[in-house]
Design a protein that fits this description.
Elements: H1 4-9, E1 17-20, E2 24-28, E3 36-42, H2 57-74, E4 81-84, E5 100-104
Antiparallel strand pairs: 1-2, 2-3, 3-5, 4-5
Length: 117
């Protein structure tokens, strides 16, 4: 498998880890879109949100628990943060391993351009 995030999980590619347990890994994005920009991924390879099954319920719960813990750890839980998952090409998904972007550390703008029809 030639998955960038699987290689990060396996330690073949270095990352600046923020959180790790037996099911989830979180690390800083190398192209941050906010002062705090962390990627949260399952250690199990799941290509997209569309590929999540009932068997993955526990790992999905772990991802959201990790997001809350990371936001608190980074000091952005109270001021606010955004948790984003892009699913497939039209959403902007580039790496096809399920991941969530945790963004914060400043007031974030709107999700979409208001002029988009």
């Amino acid at each position: 498998m030639d998955c960038l995030f699987c290689k990060i999980i396996e330690g073949q590619i270095p990352s600046k880890k923020v959180f790790e347990n037996d099911k989830v890994l979180a690390f800083y994005d190398i192209q941050p879109a906010a002062p705090e920009h962390v990627l949260i991924i399952p250690k199990k390879h799941i290509p997209t949100m569309n590929d999540v099954t009932e068997e993955d319920d526990a790992v999905m719960a772990e991802i959201f628990a990790a997001a809350r813990q990371i936001a608190a750890q980074l000091g952005i839980a109270e001021s606010g943060y955004r948790l984003i998952n892009n699913c497939n090409k039209d959403s902007g998904q580039i790496v096809f391993h399920l991941h969530f972007h945790l963004l914060g550390g400043k007031k974030l703008g709107p999700l979409l351009n208001e002029n988009v029809s």
